[in-house]
Each structure stands twice: as structure tokens, then as C-alpha cells.
Amino acid sequence: MDFRTRCARGTGVVDDVGHPLAPPIVTASTFAFSSQQEVESYYTGGRGWLYSRYGNPTVRAAERLLAELEGAQEAALFSSGMAATSTTVLSLVRSGERIAAQRELYGGTAGLFRDVLPRLGIETTWFALDEIAGLTPEGLEGCRLLWVESPTNPALRIVDLDAAARAAHAAGALAVVDGTFATPALQRPLALGCDVVVHSGTKYLGGHGDVTAGAVAGSRDLMSAIMATRRSLGGTLDPFAAFLLQRGMRTLAVRMESHERGASAVARALSGHPRVRRVLWPGLADHPDHALAGRQMAGFGGMVTFEVEGGAAGAERVHDRLRLFAKAASLGGVESLVSIPARMSHRGLPPEELERAGVTPGMLRLSVGLESPEDLVADLLEALGG
Predict the structure, then answer these.
(1) Which listed residue (60, 98, 144, 203) is catalytic?
(2) CA distance 126 to 111
(3) Catalytic residue at 203?
(4) Mean pLDDT throughout 275-280?
């Protein structure tokens, strides 16, 4: 079926609960058995439910829908995107092994790799996005994971996921992709040869700014290990949050289409403006990865980053003058947001790392929402000064 159809019809209801069109919210923390035989059936055959940290019908329904949308054998949901990321790493990497990661990563992920994992005996080898095609088995020796992000935050660069998967597999490593900005509506890394895809479900999957969640999808074998670690670490998603996440995923296709229409209008209006130095949106022909995005993705997404004249002061001036773009962290909701990456999402990075990640002082990142594109463009032009 078409992706739109799978989103809209993916109720994911499990077990004998009749035929509700919306998944029931099962808030129980523990579940009763009628006999010891039922207990044994749970432990030996996985039938039934025991405790919501181990599994819950509402959470399971949302996991089934995500797995279907990603084309994955299995999916697991978490209490946040960072819970999903950290649990994935701790499930697949042992002390003494290494991770290879691109420098252009979400700040929270980079902080985990740089500050926390070395205390557990896990080091990270960093490389630039443009170096992926040249990665060799010798360069990846000892690496268990090759971790990439596409599109990147905030420069919206596109990673060649087929090349990344081939480089990882040639070195005996697994390819993991943070696909938060694209979602399965626009990009399916597993179909391109990658092994695991990770999301901050807080963003586009939820889509309404009212849920914090993380998600991982992949093969049944890998996901079994990740779900076992989740059980031990305790980062399971709450049932009500799972209900909200599933509700968001059911409108994902149409929302991403609308986000992209708005982003296209905004990016094209900003291009050529005398106070704008450059516009970064993969749908523009002058974007460095425009051709790759056209081959690898089903669309160009709802994020737009642009750099203004005047550096940090110029960015602050435009930021503060915007009226329709809420000044807030996060992204992917129905309302448009603006932030200055160097002073918010990437605030903790030293200047040299900001430069390597392509983050400049005059850069603003826009999460284009579902408002009228004409209204958003007018707001931006007014903030820029005409």
C-alpha cells in the first residue's frame, strides 16, 4: 500500500480488544494472570503482558505502526530520543570497541559520544560527512558502529546512506542512521542497506509538540538486543505518550507534504535577499547535496537554515523581530519555530567544533510549520527589513 494509506490505516491494535479505530490507552503498570500456566506461556512463548516496563499493549501498537512505516522487522519506543540513542549504543557496543561518527551530529548525541561513553571504555573516531565515501576497513578497524545523521542539524547536509552502509559492512560494522529530520515519509535507511534507524519521536513523528519520545527500528535480531537493554535501563515510553505518538504518525504523510510546501516557499523567498548570505534547503538547486537528496529521498523536508549578514548581531536582530516563528528549541510541530544554532542547539561546542559542523554565528534554523506559507514569508521579509 501507499505510504499515505499505511499511515492513515495503521491503528496497530493488538490482542482481543474488539475493533476500535483508535488504539486503547492501557495505563496499567502490571497485568494479572489467571493461572501459572499463563505465567509460563508468557515466559516461554511471549504470550500476554507482565509489566509495562517490559511491554505494554498501547506502546506495542505504536511500535508496530512505526515498524511498518520504516519497512523494519521490529521497532522499539523510548522515553526520549536520547534514551533511544544511548540504549542503542549500549546494546551494540562493548567496552574496548569504538564508534565511528560524523562530526555533523545533533549536539546531544555528540555530547554522549564525547563526554559519557569514554568513561565506559567506548571511544569515538570522528570524520567529516564528505569523508564517508573514502572510509576504508583499515580506517574503521575496531569500530562496531558507523553512526551518521541525514539530513544533518542544522546545515541540512545529506549523507549517501548506501555508501555509508557499504563502508560499514566492509569493516564488519553496523550502519546506524539518525533519521529524525526526514522521517520514513521521506527516507527509509533500512531499504538503502543500513542496519538501524533512530528517531527523536518528539519531532515530526509526534508532530504536535506535546510528547517526548524516541524510536529505533531494525532487524528482529538487533532489536531483540536493544529491547533487552531497554528493559534493564528502564527507558520505556509511557502508554499515553505512545498513544499521542501513534496519533501523530497517522497524519505523518500529509503533514510532511505540507511542511515541505511551506519550506519551499520560505527557502525560495529568502534566496537572493540582499541581507541573506546563503540559504540551506536540499530542494534548492544550489544546495551541495541537491542531486543526492533527489535520488535518496522522497522529498526535501520542512527545515530551512539561512545565514544573514552581520554575524551574531544580525542573526539576533532577525530572530527577535520574527512574530509568527516561535523562539523555541525542538522542531517538527504544527507551529513554526526559529532558533540560532550557535546559541541554542550547539551552544556548548567550542568555536573549532562549530566550524567543523558548519555552524556560523549568523545562522538561523527554521522549523516550518503548517501555517500559510504566504504569512510566514511576509513575517521573514519584515524581520529582514523588507
Answers:
(1) 203
(2) 13
(3) yes
(4) 98
Instruction: State the chain's mean pLDDT as an integer.
Output: 94
Give catalytic status of residue 162 as yes or no. no
Distance CA 17, CA 37 (A): 22
Report the residue count for the chain.
386
Query: Percent of the chain beyond pLDDT 90?
Result: 86
The pTM of the full predicted model, rounded to 2 decimals, is: 0.95
Q: How far is CA 380 from the centre of its chain?
A: 26
Distance CA 294, CA 353 (A): 29
User: Which residue in 6, 64, 106, 255 is the catalytic one?
Assistant: 106
- Alpha helices, DSSP H only, in the chain? 3-9, 36-45, 57-70, 81-92, 107-111, 161-170, 183-186, 220-233, 239-250, 252-270, 290-296, 311-321, 351-356, 373-384
Residue 165's closest CA among 108, 247, 235, 100? 100
Burial of residue 119 (CB within 10 Å: 0-12, 13-18, 19+) is exposed
| Percent of the chain surpassing pLDDT 70 | 98
Q: What nine digits make up the cell of 1? A: 500500500
Task: Report how far residue 216's alpha carbon sits from residue 236's, in angstroms, rounded to the nearest whole number.
Answer: 12
**Coil/strand/helix, residue 51:** strand
Tell me how many helices (H) and strands (E) the chain has. 14, 12
Single out the residue of 89, 168, 104, 183 nearest to residue 133, CA to CA.
168
CA 231/CA 251 separation, integer angstroms: 30
Residue 253 makes CB contacts below 8 A (sequence gap 6+) with: 3, 4, 7, 8, 185
Report strand pairing: 143-149 vs 214-218: unpaired
Closest to 59 measured CA to CA, from 27, 87, 88, 89: 27
**Sole residue written with cell 513554526:** 336
Catalytic residue among 178, 195, 289, 379: 178
Judge whether 332 and 210 are in contact, CB under 8 Å.
no
Per the DSSP assignment, residues forming a β-bridge with 44 are none
* Kind of pairing between the strands at 123-127 and 98-102: parallel
Residue 231 annotated to the active site: no
In the set 53, 261, 278, 356, the catalytic residue is 53
Cβ-contact 93, 69 below 8 angstroms: no
